[in-house]
């Protein structure tokens, strides 16, 4: 399991086409898992507490059914559910991207003393040139 996580980290850090393709496949699997988590675990208790019913079932009837015609309904509950889904997935993706960004910053090698001195000399030469 450690090796899989290490390979996943390496794959996410490198920026190559094959890695991008793997990232897209992982994103699809992640989306499926997040959608299930939201629709099956998070939303049922939240919507029951907030409205006493499932959010997806919320609707406004414009015209009641008459004669064999179905009712005309605005199903705003599904829109609310999709909006909550978007916010949760967006927050999760941003969090994961920040974690990956932090891993890449730590993975960069430290600068040697020689590199730091050369950088200082360069900066001093730039200052002298502008004066």
Q: How do the helices and strands line up, and which of them pair or pack?
A:
Layout: H1 2-13, H2 17-51, E1 60-63, E2 72-74, H3 76-107, H4 113-130
Antiparallel strand pairs: 1-2
Query: Using only CA atoms, what is the Rg?
Result: 26 Å
Structurally, the number of domains stands at 1
Shape: elongated
Mean model confidence by pLDDT: 79
* Main sheet: strand order: 1-2
Level-1 CATH class name: Mainly Alpha
Q: Count every helix, treating DSSP H or I runs of 4 or more residues as helices.
A: 4
List how many beta strands DSSP finds.
2
Spans of at least 5 consecutive residues with low confidence? none
Kindly name the structural category.
Answer: mainly alpha
CATH topology annotation: Non-ribosomal Peptide Synthetase Peptidyl Carrier Protein, Chain A
Percentage of residues assigned to helices: over 70%
Question: What would you note in describing this structure?
Answer:
- This protein starts with a helix and ends with a helix.
- By secondary structure, the protein is mainly α.
- The longest helix has 35 residues, at 17-51.
- Strands 1-2 form a two-stranded antiparallel sheet.
- It has helices at 2-13, 17-51, 76-107, 113-130; strands spanning 60-63, 72-74.
- The model has no long low-confidence stretch (mean pLDDT 79).
